[in-house]
Amino acid sequence: MTDRPAADDTAAPLDGEAGAAPELVPAEQVTAALEAAAEFKDKLLRTLAEMENLRKRTEREVADTRLYAITSFAREVLAVADNMHRALDAVGPELREHADPQVQSFIEGIELTERELMKALEKSGVRKFSPENEKFDPNVHQAMYELETQDVPPGHVAQVIQAGYMIGDRVLRPAMVAVAKAAKSGKPANDDFVN
């Protein structure tokens, strides 16, 4: 005889054994679980879309910051460029022709410095524009006065007083211009008027 304990015949049947009845899940719970899964999927997709939009917006803001970060510095440098340009304009062609070699070298040095300054500004996204004969645009031009002329159509830029500058697609400084207006004719405007 062996000393083994007697087997208990009342033990619960193991999974997969014959005679075990599976628990049924009510249809309402399945429906609720499917609805919850669909809601979570929708939230996930919306969150992913928001994150993508945030990423794109951040990239645009970083690019704008890089491009426009030098705006205030560029405005200050433009004053230097303007003064260099005025200095060169003050030296007339006669003075250049009759100047001694040292003065001519000095003038050429200022011209070279001005060109280098403009190249440096262009590398930083600043570009000069001179809108002569273009239609007047108050967004990029500053009207200083009107000029009667027949050479340019009315409402167009007749003369550029000071060139303008753009940085990227924004106006750094508007161009100062004279706007053309129609030249007055010799006869009165109301010649059809009868007393």
Give descriptors for this structure:
195 residues, Nucleotide Exchange Factor Grpe, Chain A, domain 2, 6 strands, 4 helices
Description:
- The protein is of the alpha+beta class.
- The chain has a domain at 126-185: Nucleotide Exchange Factor Grpe, Chain A, domain 2, CATH 2.30.22.
- 47% of the residues lie in helices and 17% in strands.
- It has helices at residues 27-68, 71-90, 93-98, 101-123; strands at residues 126-129, 141-148, 157-162, 164-167, 170-173, 175-181.
- The strands form two sheets. Strands 1-4-5 form a three-stranded antiparallel β-sheet.
- A hairpin with a 2-residue loop joins strand 4 (164-167) and strand 5.
- The longest helix has 42 residues, at 27-68.
- The chain is elongated and about 110 Å long.
- Residues 187-195 have low confidence and may be disordered.
CATH architecture of the domain at 126-185: Roll
User: Can you count the helices?
Assistant: 4
Which CATH class of the domain at 126-185? Mainly Beta
Strand content: 15-25%
Global morphology: elongated
Secondary structural class: alpha+beta
CATH topology label of the domain at 126-185: Nucleotide Exchange Factor Grpe, Chain A, domain 2
Identify low-pLDDT runs.
187-195
Could you give the order of strands across the largest sheet? 1-4-5
